[in-house]
Structures are given as structure tokens and as C-alpha cells.
Amino acid sequence: MITQIEPISVIFTIAEDDLPTVMQKMRAGATLQAEAWDRDFKHKLAVGILKTVDNQIDPTTGTVKLRADFANKDAALFPNQFVNVRLLVEQEHNVNLLTTAAVQISSTSKYVFLVKPDSTVTVRQITEGVVEGDDTQVVSGLNAGDVVVMTGVDKLNEGSKVLAQIYGEGRGASRGAQASPSIENQGPANQARASRRDGAGSNRRGS
Q1: Which residue, 204, 168, 201, 198, is CA-closest to 186?
Q2: Could you report the per-residue pLDDT of 9-50, keeping only the tens digit for each?
């Protein structure tokens, strides 16, 4: 049997909590873009369009299957190939971004160690929005240009004094710094950022 690869379909899953947003967009007539990435999320293989959503949720995983179609003119996708899928649901502009590694989690909240002008730190609770890879959207709690501790937080308490090692300036989103503890003058920065829902362990099949 010869399997069609041009066009080709990708079957992937999203969490059931993300389903209402996707369905709302589809009912409104929006065309949702899907990106197929390699196993390591390093190379984008193809761009397609979300076509269908399964009519039931898998109760064992709390996920629902979706199908996206890709033209696949360059044969970048092949039957039974493993890919990851990113589904672009909506775009948010001028958001505050912070490196995800800087976000600490307690039993009641999420917070960062904010570095004050006197080089001491204070615990600052934040409200996060979309988390995508190394970047976290900060809805409230930080302002653009705030300095936060990136590593060595296990050594810190309220009022601890730190030695700032500032680098990576000029970049939109924050990235990792190094020190004992180290901090980065970055977070968060204003820039356009796509809000995405990532499909986990997507298994591509020919249509």
C-alpha cells in the first residue's frame, strides 16, 4: 500500500483545559496555524492548519486529539514520523516576559527574588500568564527593567545581599545568567509574543 504524503495530516493532543479556547476560536471562524517541529523542538519542519477536533476527551490522560493538515510540498513530514506540534491560538503584544528559570513556586504562590537598588533581595509574588519553553509571561508583580535572581536562589533569604552580574542586555526576552547567586538585568522586557498551546508527543500519520 502506498501512503499519501502530499498533503499529509498530523494527529496530536492538547490538554482538556485548553480545549475551550481552541473551540471558541474555531466556532468564531478563525483559522488556527499549526507548526510541526522535530523531536527536540529545535527545527520547525512545516506549517499547516488545524482541521478537526476529536469528539471525546481521553479520561486516562485528560487530553483530546486534534488533526492538522500540511501541504508537505518538500516532503519534510513522513508517515509515522514523531513530531511535536505547536498550535497558535492567539497573539498577545507588548507583554512582559521573564526567563522561566527565575520563577519560584511555593505552596500558595509563585514568586521571584527581586534585586533592589541597594543590592539586597526581596521576595516578590507574581502572576504568570502563558508559559512557553524558556519564557514566562508576567501578568503582574514586575515591571520592565526589574532585576531578578536567576540562579542560587536556594542560598537566599529576604534581605540577602547579592553581587549583580549584568549581561545579555539588548535582548528582548530574558535568558539564564550565572553566579552565586547570579542575576540578570532583563526581566521582563516588552515585546510581541505568540501565545501557543503545545501538542505533546505528536504522532504523524499519512492521510
Answers
A1: 168
A2: 999 999 999 899 999 999 999 999 999 999 888 899 999 999
Where exactly are the structural domains of the chain? 8-91+195-205, 93-193
Contacts of 66 (CB under 8 A, 6+ apart): 11, 12, 13, 14, 22, 50, 52, 53, 54, 87, 199
pLDDT of res. 3? 66
For residues 114 and 146, the answer to whether their CB atoms sit within 8 Å is yes
Fold category of 8-91+195-205 in CATH: Elongation Factor Tu (Ef-tu); domain 3 (2.40.30)
| pTM of this structure | 0.58
What cell numbers appear for 79 in the block?
A: 508517515
First to last CA, the chain: 13
Average pLDDT of the chain to the nearest whole number? 77
Name which CATH class applies to 93-193.
mainly beta
Q: Which three cell numbers stand for residue 80?
A: 509515522
Q: CA angle, 11 as apex, 7 and 12 as ends, to 5°? A: 135
- What is the distance between the alpha carbons of residues 15 and 142, in angstroms, rounded to a whole number? 29
Reply yes or no on whether the pLDDT at 115 is more than 80: yes
